[in-house]
Amino acid sequence: MSSRLIVNTPYYSARQYVGGAGIGIFLDDAATDGVPGRRPPPMKPPIEEGMINVFEQADEETVNNWKRMLGKILVEQIVRPDVKRQWDRFTGNPDSAALHDFPRHYVLWVHKTGKTYDLRALNMFTNSVRLQNLRFT
Predict the structure, then answer these.
(1) Could you tell me if 7 and 14 are in contact, meaning their C-beta atoms sit under 8 angstroms apart?
(2) What single DSSP character describes residue 33?
């Protein structure tokens, strides 16, 4: 599938794919504060009443949904202004954007808490050195 480069910065590049297939955002490997191997704190095992409090690595579908959501936000907040700053016209659709991959060493975790029959899940990134945890509901 052919594409054209619409923005290239020291931190990321964005490509617009021909035929309305969307916008891909590629982060530079050096643009990360992630720490390899960093994991959420260990949690207690489920207790007898059926309460759980565990972290699980997010499945592929959840990861892909987050990449699409973050891609849309990045296009609206960063890519579009950068395209305009270089005196170009932005013609892409933010709804068709996706982040190619999370920053290096970042992992998306799902924090599951509650009764086993009524789980509450929070999505969380935990590998940032500067930020304690990024939580999303």
Answers:
(1) yes
(2) -
